[in-house]
Amino acid sequence: MKMNKFVKTIIGYERMKVQDFYTEEEPYRGEMVFVAQVELYKSETYRCPVCGRKCVSYGYQRNRVKRWRALDLGSHRFYLECEAPRCKCPEHGVKAVKIPWAFPDSDYTYAFEMQVAYCAANEPTNLVARKYRIKWGTVGNCVGRVQDNVPPLQPQSFKNLKRIAIDETSYQKGYKYITTVMNLDNGEIIWAADGFGDEVLREFFEQLTDEERAGIEQVAADGARWITRQVEAFCPNAVRCVDPFHVVGWATGALDNARKRIAADTKKNGLPC
Ligand SMILES: [Zn+2]
């Protein structure tokens, strides 16, 4: 396979010319990295990153050339290098040109950010950062860009759901709530909606067919009565389970209350506590 074809294949983009592909030593880390120097086809240059329209050149902001971190090649970092001028779109104004392998203003390729985001959905941030050799904050930035740019998942098929977990959580300092449903067999969030309560959860169960509802065997959640009510109403064969996180929390809370009560009693009766 020729170098040109090789780089196009790993980046997953055809409409560019590969000028060079070489290794170099990174000055700070002293590690060997791969670099591919590429040039977009003329027809793909000066496109607006918002509408994709072909625009006029507007010079360079800082450096002529920019690097994007792509997925590692073997154990080595791999960078794609290309000129990154600005263009002036009649509708969106002056912008850095559209780069077909990266989200706007990103220093990473789509593939890299998608992998980081997918990994971050399943693993703690510090592990993801170590795995991909990026900063802790970069993990969040990658996830944010993927969320902003990738269209929402197609309506899910809820076939073969057996064990699910339901939870509500607050954000924006407790002003807003979100309810999520997770498939416990693969760890994926399969549904989420703003708010909580009977009305919200009913929406989820109403999307399922009778057969799918009947297939649910176990539902884990905290002690919320609205969850119990909806599970009883829609899932005839499900066992309502309480998740260990809340059980441990309740037990510790109860123990704490008992300790306080005994301490207060002992004090009242004049015994040393
Ligand atoms: Zn535009």
Characteristics:
about 270 residues; 8 helices; elongated; binds zinc ion; alpha/beta; Nucleotidyltransferase, domain 5; about 30% strand
Characterise the protein shown here:
- This protein has 273 residues and is α/β, with parallel strands linked by helices.
- It has eight helices and twelve strands.
- α2 (110-122) crosses α4.
- The longest helix has 25 residues, at 244-268.
- The protein binds zinc ion.
- Zinc ion is lined by residues 48, 50-51, 53, 89, 91-92.
What is the fold's blueprint, element by element?
Layout: H1 3-11, E1 16-25, E2 32-40, E3 56-57, E4 65-73, E5 76-83, E6 86-89, E7 93-96, H2 110-122, H3 125-132, H4 136-149, E8 163-171, E9 176-183, E10 188-194, H5 198-207, H6 210-215, E11 218-221, H7 225-234, E12 239-242, H8 244-268
Parallel strand pairs: 2-5, 8-11, 11-12
Antiparallel strand pairs: 1-2, 3-6, 4-5, 6-7, 8-9, 9-10
Q: What does the radius of gyration come to?
A: 27 Å
Shape summary? elongated
Tally of structural domains: 2
Order of helices and strands: HEEEEEEEHHHEEEHHEHEH
Poorly predicted regions? none
Instruction: Count every helix, treating DSSP H or I runs of 4 or more residues as helices.
Output: 8
Strand order of the largest sheet: 10-9-8-11-12
N-to-C terminal Cα separation, in Å?
A: 80 Å
Bound molecules: zinc ion
* Protein structure class: alpha/beta
Name the helicity range: 25-40%
Please describe the biggest sheet, giving its number of strands, its sense, and whether it closes into a barrel: 5 strands, mixed
Mean pLDDT: 90
Instruction: Please give the number of β-strands.
Output: 12
Strand composition percent:
25-35%
